Amino acid sequence: GIYISKNLSWSPHIATISDGARKTAAWVLSVFQDRSALVMLQLYKSLIRSKLEFSCPLWNPVKLPDIAKLESVQRSFTSKITSVSHLDSRLLGQAEVTWVDVTSETS
Prior knowledge:
107 residues, mainly alpha, 50% helix
């Protein structure tokens, strides 16, 4: 679902979906032993990013703390991938795996 506060802030929604995506990421990392970039990218796109991007045109994040919360899920997940864990999440587009900046999907 979509969550919104009484003052029309999307921060509760972003906190909820970030927590849900983080839990899904933890589950993926506990179940799948393969840490190759190809496998992890597919798992990330299908199970984690889909949670982060659900209805994102509606709640487009503009507050820096909200954006940081969303990006922290990706950073945490990518730190577990052997071939790209040494890269900053903003540099991952230049690596063999192309990750998408959460905010770029909503623009």
